[in-house]
Write a structure and sequence with these properties.
The complex is a heterodimer of chains A (114) and B (114). Chain A has 114 residues and is mainly beta. Helix content of chain A is 0%, strand content 51%. Chain B is mostly beta strands. Chain B has strands at 5-7, 10-13, 19-24, 31-37, 44-50, 53-57, 64-68, 74-78, 87-94, 104-105, 109-113. The chains are: A mainly beta (114), B mainly beta (114). Chain A binds chain B through residues 32, 34, 36, 41-46, 49, 51, 90, 92, 94, 97-107, and chain B through 4, 6, 31, 33, 35, 41-45, 48, 50, 55-56, 58, 90, 92, 94, 96-108, 110.
Chain lengths: 114, 114
């Protein structure tokens, strides 16, 4: 079965510092991986996805993610955190099958301190 | 371009009642998926509709049902509501159900069952 794991419930970082939100995956075959962000009482906003190609994927709002096949990881990164980046971040993998069903991790709360 | 919209924003029902949630997909998108997000958890896939046909279903009982209309808008119906149905219900639309098709989410409907 396909799955993703987000090992950290919360990540704290100071504004201006680089941030990393971790995600590892378990899939059979090639993974199709996504990152979404959720602000309080809001739906999910798409940040970026890895389908194939370059291991470094660039997305919205200055975020990027590094796909590492040997470590089965897809960590989300940003060089300089903003207070407005504080939100809940979800990693997801597309399930193999007829639908593009996403299987989500449990989420990581990012708190950026001013 | 109009994004995914959902109605109502909030809803309060009592146990045993029935509820209908509505979703308008993003312009040009023919695929709609529904997810349930319980408090503190990642979204869980309920089902997906592609061109008015259900083409995949998650681990939810038959009292969760849906429809997709010719304009690709969609409804989620839940019968015989239970307390555990209290959650944020998210609708997502995509161009199709292919491997690389990104799902774009609406703001969600917060359902409370008393």
């Amino acid at each position: 079965a396909q799955s993703v794991a987000q090992p950290e419930d919360q990540v704290n970082v100071a504004e201006g510092n680089p941030l990393t939100v971790k995600c590892t995956y378990s899939v059979s075959g090639n993974p199709y991986l996504f990152w979404y962000v959720q602000y309080p009482n809001r739906g999910l906003q798409f940040l970026l996805k890895y389908i194939t190609g370059d291991n470094l994927v660039k997305g919205s709002y200055g975020f990027e993610a590094e796909f590492n096949k040997s470590q089965t990881s897809f960590h989300l990164k940003k060089p300089s955190a903003l207070v407005s980046d504080s939100a809940l971040y979800f990693c997801a993998v597309r399930e193999r099958g007829a639908t593009n069903k996403l299987i989500f991790g449990t989420g990581t709360l990012l708190a950026v301190q001013p | 371009e109009t994004g995914v919209t959902q109605s109502p924003t909030h809803l309060i029902k009592t146990r045993g009642q029935q509820v209908t949630l509505r979703c308008s997909s993003q312009s040009g998108h023919n695929t709609v998926s529904w997810y349930q997000q319980a408090l503190g958890q990642g979204p869980q896939f309920i089902f997906q509709y592609y061109r008015e046909e259900e083409n995949g279903r998650g681990n939810f009982p038959p009292r969760f049902s849906g429809l997709q209309f010719p304009n690709y808008s969609s409804e989620l119906n839940v019968n015989a509501l239970e307390l555990d149905d209290s959650a944020l219900y998210l609708c997502a639309s995509s161009l199709g159900s292919g491997w690389g098709d990104t799902q774009y989410f609406g703001p969600g409907t917060r359902l409370t069952v008393l």
